[in-house]
Amino acid sequence: MNEYALLIDYKYCTGCHVCEVSCRKEHDIPLDEWGIKLNEMGPVKMKDKWLWDYVPVPSDLCDLCEDRVAAGKKPACVHHCLAQCMELVPVEELSAKMAEHGNKVTCFIP
Fold first, then answer.
1. pLDDT digits (tens, 9 = 90+) for 54-73
2. Domain spanning 4-108 has what CATH number?
3. CB 10 within 8 A of CB 56
């Protein structure tokens, strides 16, 4: 599955936890483990602005929903993301996609 990466544009993440829930349901993951975990960073005051970010972070249990992708579907977290801030991207397109999204983007390659 190394031909794909999960691109997360976390400036749009609202912290709804739907990625965690959909992953847990898709893979029947127990409550004390995560396929993807939403981390909250903030609030932090920088100059006159308050910053508060949510960053979904895939764990080593994440296989980018290999079975779903093989069936032509999106990974569960991407499909259910309410903010549509996650995208499955072919690795060869990753740098161009990251450049499009700017500085609040991260990627995951299992």
1. 999 999 999 999 999 999 99
2. 3.30.70.20
3. yes
